[in-house]
Amino acid sequence: MNELQGALGLVQLQKLDQVISRQRANKQAIKEGIKDIAGLTFRPHHDPSGEIATFLLLFLPTKEKTEKFKAAMAENGVTPGVLGYWHFTANVESWGGSFPKTEALLGRMIVVEIQAVMSERRLDQVITAIRKAARIL
Fold it and tell me: Which of 54, 99, 121, 130 has the least CB density, counted as fewest CB within 10 Å?
């Protein structure tokens, strides 16, 4: 790392608390907008104050419903994220083995990216896309 990169890093670190605060607020706004959807569950957090809210993870009852749900979200302008590869698949490929419980859980998971800067319009779009997708439930 050179001096310029270090200087930029220090400036960015000064913004970190504000960025995390905005991400948490955006995540909470989306959760509030979809909390009443039957069949949709949120990933539990055992340390909410330590969570930085980069993603909202949702679970559906089956992999088949999850795939349809993701497609419906994308049709409504919100493409679900992917956590499975970097956080799981790459390690399985490196180390070998089989993890059927984890694979089943990942198959039922929907990942919604939370950004620090999300307009009210974008928050509404995410909530609407999830609510429309939930019609399959």
Answer: 121
What does the block give as tokens for 51? 């969570």
Residue 88 has pLDDT above 80, yes or no: no
Tokens of 28: 């909470």
DSSP string, 93-124: HHH----HHHHHHHHTEEEEE--S---HHHHH
Considering all CA atoms of the chain, what is the largest pairwise distance in Å, rounded to the nearest integer? 53
- Whole-number pLDDT of residue 86: 66
For domain 19-136, give the CATH superfamily. Aspartate Aminotransferase, domain 1 (3.90.1150.10)
Domain ranges of the chain: 19-136
Please say whether the beta carbons of 98 and 21 come within 8 A: no
The mean pLDDT of the chain is 92
Q: What is the dihedral of CA 85, 91, 95, 97, to 10 degrees?
A: -60
Structure tokens at 137: 């439930």
Q: Which residues of 78-90 are buried (b: 16+ CB within 10 A; e: fewer)?
A: bebbeebeeeeee
Q: What's the token pair of residue 114?
A: 């939370």
> What pairs with residue 59 in β-bridges?
41, 109
